[in-house]
Structure formats: C-alpha cells, structure tokens
Amino acid sequence: xxxxxxxxxxxxxxxxxxxxxxxxxxxxxxxxxxxxxxxxxxxxxxxxxxxxxxxxxxxxxxxxxxxxxxxxxxxxxxxxxxxxxxxxxxxxxxxxxxxxxxxxxxxxxxxxxxxxxxxxxxxxxxxxxxxxxxxxxxxxxxxxxxxxxxxxxxxxxxxxxxxxxxxxxxxxxxxxxxxxxxxxxxxxxxxxxxxxxxxxxxxxxxxxxxxxxxxxxxxxxxxxxxxxxxxxxxxxxxxxxxxxxxxxxxxxxxxxxxxxxxxxxxxxxxxxxxxxxxxxxxxxxxxxxxxxxxxxxxxxxxxxxxxxxxxxxxxxxxxxxxxxxxxxxxxxxxxxxxxxxxxxxxxxxxxxxxxxxxxxxxxxxxxxxxxxxxxxxxxxxxxxxxxxxxxxxxxxxxxxxxxxxxxxxxxxxxxxxxxxxxxxxxxxxxxxxxxxxxxxxxxxxxxxxxxxxxxxxxxxxxxxxxxxxxxxxxxxxxxxxxxxxxxxxxxxxxxxxxxxxxxxxxxxxxxxxxxxxxxxxxxxx
Length: 525
Ligand code: ADP
Ligand code: MG
What we know:
The chain is built from 18 helices and 18 strands. By secondary structure, the protein is an alpha+beta fold. It folds into three domains: about 10-140 and about 395-510, GroEL-like equatorial domain (GROEL, domain 1, Orthogonal Bundle), CATH 1.10.560; about 145-190 and about 355-390, no CATH class; about 205-355, 3-Layer(bba) Sandwich (GroEL).
C-alpha cells in the first residue's frame, strides 16, 4: 500500500538511486573537468568559445569556459558554482578546483566499487582537512614585495602574451599595494580604446568621465580642499504642492530674489569653509554656476555613488548633506585635478592625498584585446589583493599537492578504519594537478610525478615542483613559481566540500519534462 502510494506520488518523476546515481554524478563531473583540463597551467591550450549569438572568444581561463558552457546536469552545475565561488573569493585557482573535485569523485567511486560506503569516504575526506591546513601552514613562506609581484605574474602565466602579463601584473601589484586594504573594489578599472597596453597607467585617484559644470571655473593645477555633497545645489522645492498667489508684480520678483539669495548663501558657506572643489551627487542649479565660478570653486555635478565613494577613499573626504554644516573633518584633500580629452571625450583626473582609492587605466587598440586584458587584470588584481591580506606563499608547479599527498599517505597509516582508504584516495587525487601540468606541457605525467616526489624526499623540501618551462624538477622559490596560500587552500577546501556533497547524494529525482525539440533541430528551421 505504502509502496503504491509512493509510486503514484512519483509518476511524473524519473528516479535514479544508489550507486547508479553516484556513477552518473561522477560522469558529469568528469565530463566537466575534461572540458577545462587542457587549459591548466602556463602551457595550457586556449579554447575558442562560440556563443549562441555567434560571438567568439579565445580564452585560457577555466571559469570563462565553464560559464559559457550550456550545462544541464545538476552535478555539473554544482561544480560550476564551486568554481565560481573560488573566482568570486580569490579570483584564481578555478580550473584546479574543478579538476580536483572530479578526481576526488573518481577515486571515491573506485572505493565504492570496492565496497566502501560513501559516508565512510566522506568521513575520510573530511579527516584530511586539518592535516592539510597544518601542512600548508608549515610549507608556506612569507612574501616580500618582489615575491608578491612574481606570484601575480605566475597567476597570469598562459593568459595573453608575456608583454601584457608583465605590464598587468605590475599594475595590479602596484594598485593593491597602494590601497593597502586588500579590497579589489578600492581599485577602479577603466578601459580606453586608444594607444597600446604599454600606455596603461595607475592613477592615484579617480577618473571621472565628465567636465566641470562651467567653463569659467578655473582649473588650478595645485592641491586643494574638496567637499563631497550627498545632494545638490538646487532651489528648494516646496514640500507640499502650493500655488503661488500673485497679488502684485513685485511678489514674483521677491520670490526669485529669495531663491537667488538662498543659492548665494550656500555658495558663501562653501567659500567660508575654504572649499576649492565641490563634487555633488545631484544637480547644481544653472544660476549657481556663475556664483561658484566667482567664488573660485571648481564644481562637478551628478556624480554616481560608486564614484563618490571612491573619491572619498582617494581624498579622505566625508560626504555632507548640508553645506551649511561643514566640519573640517568632512573636507578632503586632493593633490591635483586636471582635465584631459581622451578620444574626444572630456575626462577629469583627480589625484587624491590618500592612496585608498586608485584607478588603473588599461589601454588597447581593439575591443577584443581590451576585454582580454581586463579579464587578466581582474585575476591579477584578485591575487595581488589576496597577498596584501595574507602575504604567505606556497610553491606552484604541483609541489604543494605532491607534498600534501606525501603527508596524507603517512597520516593514513595511522588510521585503522576504512577511512584510511579514503585518505589514500584523497592523496592520489591531489596528484592530478602535477599530472595535468606535465601532460599539458607534453611531458610524461607518471615520470614527472615520480621525479618530483623523489626530489622532495631527497631534499626533504616541499618546494620542489615541476617547472614546465624547463621541464625540470626544481626549487619553486628559485624558479619564482609561487601561489598565494589563500588561493590553494581555498581551492582544496572548495573541491573537498563539493565532492562530499556529491557523495552524499544517493537518490536523484528528475521532474519529467515535456518533450521538447532538441536545440540543434530548432536551429535548423
Ligand atoms: P587555475 O584556474 O587553477 O588557476 P591556471 O591555468 O591558472 O589554472 O594554472 C595554475 C597552475 O599552473 C598552478 O598549479 C600553478 O602552480 C601552475 N604553474 C604556473 N606556472 C607554472 C610553471 N612555470 N611551471 C609549472 N607550473 C606552473
Ligand atoms: Mg590561475
């Protein structure tokens, strides 16, 4: 009876249970990982992505590939969101995350086939966490400025040409160091379709795509005081709809005179506070332009909120609501203001006294090149900011993963239960990173893995890894192939979580869909 009822409830549902569910989920993860594995590392190949609208894009970036893929399988979607979380939080290590998740699942499936229960495997995988944390901390080394810069460069390896990588890595490193906050949104990025990537620059302030409100306002090249108004200099509109009853001709003049006096009073307040430059979020009345010009106050209106916030960071200003109530602490300081025409468009460049808000202008001759440069810069900036927050480095070139695998294998020996097998499976899964790095460089994955493992054992150093440029096992510190600790740690933790959540699924219920024409058929019509 109960069974019958259940069957009735699930009539519109396809159901896959137990090991078959796991098998299907692992297959989806592997398919996804296969789509990006060839992009891993500096010798990774590019992918040509063609969108539904015929647009095309050449990229070496795993997450870009995944986001373009039209993926239906729920497990694949879950993996994509894990890699997106990696991208959002640390901006790098996305391909590694997907590849590692798939490998953890493949090894888990193998254990399931040998009779180990998925919950046992999940538990063994979890037991690796603390060992990994502790090992990563002991391997990592502090980063100085030069090493941070080379780490940013490593993160760009394989993305665009070397000239572009060097320029963007330097700009990202300089910008992140200047703000000192480790916040990527303290660095604004502006792309300009003119000149070449070599002409890209870091501006210690902000670039507004607008000009001063009035030509007669004098542009002074020197430093000065800036007030940021969270509002405007506009005539005060009556709150309630009131009709003005005009009894004699003088009344209307008197009304206008009061309005003008009111504007003048506000400009006088600005002048009394020694303001050289006013930036308003709302409008500035036409009538006030001449008054402001006469008072020597350079003014800008209708500046968007994100730009206002950035200006505050760059100048130390605090937005005020009422110009009659300016405190000295509200006033910011700029080092210079200048106007420049870029491609015929007016830009105003504010250089602030504080370095918490900076702008990077990326230049390039074509839209495609600019997009590529911007994507690469975003990644580089993410890595540079990670290093400001946590200046600790790990070796790249698979060294970290091999060191972890060696450590986990030793740890597994101390675990008496079946989790021991899961920990060994985890260790083996980590080796997928050096294996693919070797494979993508045309080297033999098994030989390279053995070579590095032996080199680490002989030198008793976790810093021996594979330099794919020379094809040799070498010290990653000397070869300057390094990664931020936070990126690698996040990638391993994210992959572990994703693999465990897939392992916990033993029942997949698919709602039956109405029969649909396959996409390709629709396209042919
Ligand atoms: P992800 O999306 O995971 O960041 P990448 O394509 O950026 O993938 O590749 C990153 C991997 O490439 C890291 O494991 C890094 O250590 C490795 N790598 C970078 N440069 C080298 C190099 N010269 N030799 C070997 N491995 C390198
Ligand atoms: Mg990377």
